[in-house]
């Protein structure tokens, strides 16, 4: 097969200094299904966004159809026959399937009166729907369709534009298990139409079902590209996750008998968590491992009181949390580090002082009616000192002026300042530098030393192995494996994370 795309030493460093891709070279052959696999944060979406003209590489060269290629905008990529279905769909909800599909190309269907000939537009879209054997109608409104059908519309939109190189960024993450098989068959149909497909997934069962070749990324570097025949699922899982984790740094055990939190049979109303049960002990750091999209976000939101349960029970020291809102849970002794410091954890436009005391003021820490400004300032100072937040002199500066690592340290410091019985932390070191990561890890250890429990939800397996006393692996909303320190086996965990075992 001829090569259609070749990347040569493509690197990307984001403005915040994070190196998402380091000299990645790989090629895609015309007509193949090429899978890209890697843990969360490996750089898969970054690489695809570069190919689709959404972001620019920092260095490196790309050739597409034998010409140098550096699209400045998706329209340029689309013009050359590249289409992409994103992890988060980009459809207009209030209009129909056909209207979404032809969006931007409506003038093809203008009649002499310069009016859109809707019948003609619908016929044109219907013929492609029929060719692809999809069960949707051009007249359906997007907002009335289930997710799997919305995804079909995204694909329809891509194929309608005479695309011959199709990027699917984690398409199966949003599908229910019973929908996946049909989807994979559909991808093979697209290949039979002569198209080239780049397929991103961390579920190795899916990858092995349809891919011709597999490229593995790990922490922004290329591990390799393999013919499916040359490798097996175990070896790919090892290359994705790595087996070089050093357990000698593991902290002392502060684990006690006492159960702080008892969670039984959780099912959330979105149906992602399916019968999840666990106990958190005093002094314990309990890690939830898994690739993203397997219930991690839902677990956090359920614990925070933002996502309702359809069944299950959660008790903090024998008293139920289920009826409490987030503030009530904070009062009961739970603190939260969200995975989205910019949108949920901090108020970026507010000052360092305001962000330090946010939440705490509701507990009357700075006076009852009026805020005692000097108390608030010294409270902020203590967090900044203890957590080495590099702020500059003026604490009235907006938080958004800080680097990502410093913002995160501020958030972590603020939450630990509650002296919580339980800290629930989601992706606490995503996108932060090495020094901030170490400081945050040390602060979790110190907290557990005082007898508090920590729930650590993280896509970074190394982080979990370094910190946790016990690891639960989440896969499709269930706890599929549980291991206690020191009996951690990266290879085994990798098998559970990627669905080889379960
Ligand atoms: N716009 C951005 N600014 C800064 N860092 C980013 C941005 N987008 C992604 N990253 C970081 O780049 C790394 C790779 O992310 P991504 O390409 O989304 O990985 P994947 O798709 O494999 O999960 C991650 O550490 C992520 O946090
Ligand atoms: Mg991604």
Summarize the structure.
The chain is 33% helix and 24% strand. With 502 residues, the protein is α/β, with parallel strands linked by helices.
Which SSEs are present, and which pair or pack?
Elements: E1 3-13, E2 19-29, E3 33-37, H1 44-51, E4 59-64, E5 67-68, H2 74-79, E6 82-85, H3 97-101, H4 118-131, H5 147-160, E7 165-168, H6 177-192, E8 196-200, H7 204-210, E9 213-218, E10 221-227, H8 233-241, E11 259-268, E12 274-281, E13 285-289, H9 296-304, E14 309-316, E15 319-320, H10 326-332, E16 334-337, H11 341-345, H12 352-357, H13 373-386, H14 404-416, E17 422-426, H15 434-449, E18 453-457, H16 461-467, E19 470-475, E20 478-484, H17 490-497
Parallel strand pairs: 3-8, 3-9, 6-7, 7-8, 13-18, 13-19, 16-17, 17-18
Antiparallel strand pairs: 1-2, 1-4, 4-5, 9-10, 11-12, 11-14, 14-15, 19-20
Helix pairs in contact: 8-17, 14-15
This protein binds adenosine-5'-diphosphate (ADP) and magnesium ion.
What features would you describe in this structure?
The structure is a single chain. By secondary structure, the chain is an alpha/beta fold. It folds into 2 domains: 3-241, P-loop containing nucleotide triphosphate hydrolases (Rossmann fold, 3-Layer(aba) Sandwich); 252-497, P-loop containing nucleotide triphosphate hydrolases (Rossmann fold), CATH 3.40.50. Helices cover 33% and strands 24% of the residues. The chain has 17 helices and 20 strands. It has helices spanning 44-51, 74-79, 97-101, 118-131, 147-160, 177-192, 204-210, 233-241, 296-304, 326-332, 341-345, 352-357, 373-386, 404-416, 434-449, 461-467, 490-497; strands at 3-13, 19-29, 33-37, 59-64, 67-68, 82-85, 165-168, 196-200, 213-218, 221-227, 259-268, 274-281, 285-289, 309-316, 319-320, 334-337, 422-426, 453-457, 470-475, 478-484. A 6-stranded mixed sheet has the order 6-7-8-3-9-10, sandwiched between helices. It has a 6-stranded mixed sheet with strand order 16-17-18-13-19-20, sandwiched between helices. Helix 8 (233-241) crosses helix 17 and helix 14 (404-416) packs parallel to helix 15 (434-449). The chain is globular. The mean pLDDT is 91. Adenosine-5'-diphosphate (ADP) binds next to helix 1.
